[in-house]
Amino acid sequence: MIRRMRSIQQAIAEIKEEDPKSCLSEWHLRQMVLSGELPFHAVGRKYLIDLSVLEDILGGKTVIQKKEEIPGNFTAVKMRRIGG
Predict the structure, then answer these.
(1) Which domain holds residue 39?
(2) What is the per-residue DSSP string for 33-52?
(3) Whole-model pTM?
(4) Rounded CA separation 68/6 (Å)
(5) Number of domains, the chain
(6) What are the residue ranges of helices labelled H in the chain?
(7) Which residues have CB under 8 Å from 64's CB, separation 6+?
(8) 70 phi, psi to nearest 5 deg
């Protein structure tokens, strides 16, 4: 299965395409990433998020993430879904 990884701007564009009246904003999505509520992968200065995980969170499912340090400047994120 290929993950649908998108930047914050691309994720908002896809959500708006599916639901033009969506109230979710780029600022709110960025706050979800920065607070740790939404798992992400940092690539340079961009935050990449998995659209299926975002849809799960917006749908009310709980996503728990566990970070593990890897030598260098990398952080692996292990996710486990609960509920739904």
Answers:
(1) 5-82
(2) HHHTSS--EEETTEEEEEHH
(3) 0.68
(4) 22
(5) 1
(6) 8-18, 26-35, 51-58
(7) 79, 80, 81, 82
(8) -120, 140
For residue range 18-73, what is the model confidence (pLDDT) as tens digits? 999 999 999 999 999 988 888 898 888 899 999 999 988 888 776 666 555 445 55
Read off the pLDDT of residues 51-65 as tens digits, 9 standing for 90 and up.
Answer: 999 988 888 776 666
Structure tokens belonging to residue 45: 């200065």
Amino acid at 64: I
Give me 34's structure tokens. Answer: 């920065």
* Number of Cβ within a 10 Å radius of residue 41: 15
Assess contact for 50 and 4: CB atoms under 8 A: yes
Q: Dig out the tokens for 52 from the structure.
A: 């299926």
42-65 burial, b for 16+ CB within 10 Å, e for fewer?
A: eeeeebbbbeebbebbeeeeebee
